[in-house]
UniProtKB/TrEMBL annotation:
Pfam families: Sec23_trunk, zf-Sec23_Sec24. Signal peptide: none annotated. Residues 180-361 form the Sec23/Sec24 trunk domain. Residues 1-21 are annotated as: Disordered. It comes from Alexandrium andersonii. This is Protein transport protein SEC23. Transmembrane segments: none annotated. GO terms for biological process: COPII-coated vesicle cargo loading; intracellular protein transport. Belongs to the SEC23/SEC24 family. SEC24 subfamily. Residues 103-141 form the Zinc finger Sec23/Sec24-type domain. It comes from the Eukaryota. One of its GO terms (cellular component) is COPII vesicle coat. GO terms for molecular function: SNARE binding; zinc ion binding.
Amino acid sequence: SSRIDPEQVPRPAGPSEGVKEEGGKVYYTDKYHIPPPATAVCTIVDKGSCSCEFVRTSVNQVPAFPSTANTAHVPIVVVCQPFAELTAKEEPVPLINFGESGPLRCTRCHAYVNPYFQWQNGGREAICNFCGHRVQVPDDYYFPLDEHGRRKDHDDRPELQKGTVDYMAPRDYSDSMPGVPVMCFVIEASQRSVQSGLLPQVMWTLRSLLGFTKEPARVAIITYDSSLHFYAFYPGSDCARAVTVSDMEDPFVPCGHTSLCVSVEDDAYRVQIEALLDELPAAFADTTAEQVAGGSALRAAVDLVSAAGGGHVMMFHSTLPNTGLGALRHRDDLRLSSKPDEGGLFTVQQAPFFDGVAADC
């Protein structure tokens, strides 16, 4: 029979046994050959190999020969989740600070020092476990070896014991010193956004969340319909100043980022931000704008955040961008059905624009 038996279709297996205690079964990364299922309740103990909570592959056995791989045609995927949430029973990821010299790395493949580096020449040389290249150990990282060829400070070095560690990045790892991040809120202000309740709801939510910012942050607000509306904040002013940009084919940031991105912890700016969030729903209540330049707004927001030193762009929209940069069309165009152009319904729209924005991020 050519019919597929559902019972023979491979499927993820659930936990083989019940959870008997808090944290579930304990798995040591240097002992298990098959990681626990992704849905299992368990505790992972890092013993030199990365926990499957941070890096998990789609297959547990990799073909040793190219001929086997070509015959199997099984794709291999690696899912990386560097900031996975740990359970209460698991140890936190150690944070290591090597100062301005930075961590020891292979000079050929740039792999970081790890528990599988080998040491020779009395500890003066390290052999990379990825490419086999010999690396001269700097004087500030040198330590003699014991009779087994292991560094005598092995037990004091988390990077030589754990498969997952965090490094404090030295100054030369970045072109500029990190500053206070910007949270740029880009909100659609078209007729549909107002009538659906999106605009007033977003404003109310942002207004209520201003008091819950735990870390220092700067805020920028942009609203858009067929134009872009920036809001500049100046010391000593009672309200924000609106600046409108109408060129949607070549959008730009109309003024300096220091006036558009301001700290919510500064009382002088905090009052202006709160007043602006209270006033915007009424300001756009009678709008009749149906054209939405979402792509242009996104482009301008990315440029603003980049000029300010980095941060996050959070965009709230209810309408497909239909004008300006990155304008899209609805895919459910029945006029193209059963016609030669029907294949165009499924092609990626505005790929160069969105690829460019992603590259700039």
